[in-house]
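Take a look at the protein record below and flag anything odd:
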Amino acid sequence: MILPAALLLALAAPAQAAIVQVAIVRQAASVKISPEGKVSVAQPGVKTKPLEWKGELTLKPREGGLRLATLRLKTETRLIPVSGARIRVGGNYYRGALILRLDPGQTLTIVEEASIEEYLEGVLPHEMNPEWPLEALKAQAVVARTFTYANLGKFHKDGFDLTSDTRSQVYKGMTDVNENVRAAVRQTRGEVLGWKGKLLRVYYHACCGGATTDAGAAWGGEGEIPRPLRGVRDPWCA
């Protein structure tokens, strides 16, 4: 069970950060990719061209770049789904542009570029049961959106904003997204949590054992702890 860390005044999300880059594969020797529908291949310095593949393809590193089936690609090539197409990577489906990157150690990384609202749809069903009541999912959506904006650029030195695991938030693209999840994200669009006009750094967890602790006790830091981040008893989480 995932419960929000705090329930605060909702503010409008920053307008300038509508896109998030999420690492969905890191330092892999090879990856299986299955495009479904038309996909544009955009290589740096090369004219973009739409292609339509059938079946499963293998993406591998090669000297100075990447190979996808018989295609020789440059690092930073983008696979861009066209007109509702999607791309399966491993066991999950993605609808955003995929950035294919050659790592220094001759491994490969794949980063999905998605709108933050679409990203949240892929987070919610893996951080909370997607069949739970809509109001609970809406609360989770606001907390997850706040976490996203507060952590944008955290992995900038690695070439992306967030990971797709618990170092950020668990994200699996379109997998398990249902109408309940879409409604929760849509009905809270742009809402984040704030305190005294500033975006809060919020965290959430599976179980608190019946009480939370002050944010300062868990994470350290100086100065006054915002009141909503102080410890409280929680009889529903024990």
Observations:
- The chain has four helices and 16 strands.
- Residues 1-9 have pLDDT under 50 and may be disordered.
- Residues 134-151 form the longest helix (18 residues).
- The two ends are 11 Å apart (CA to CA).
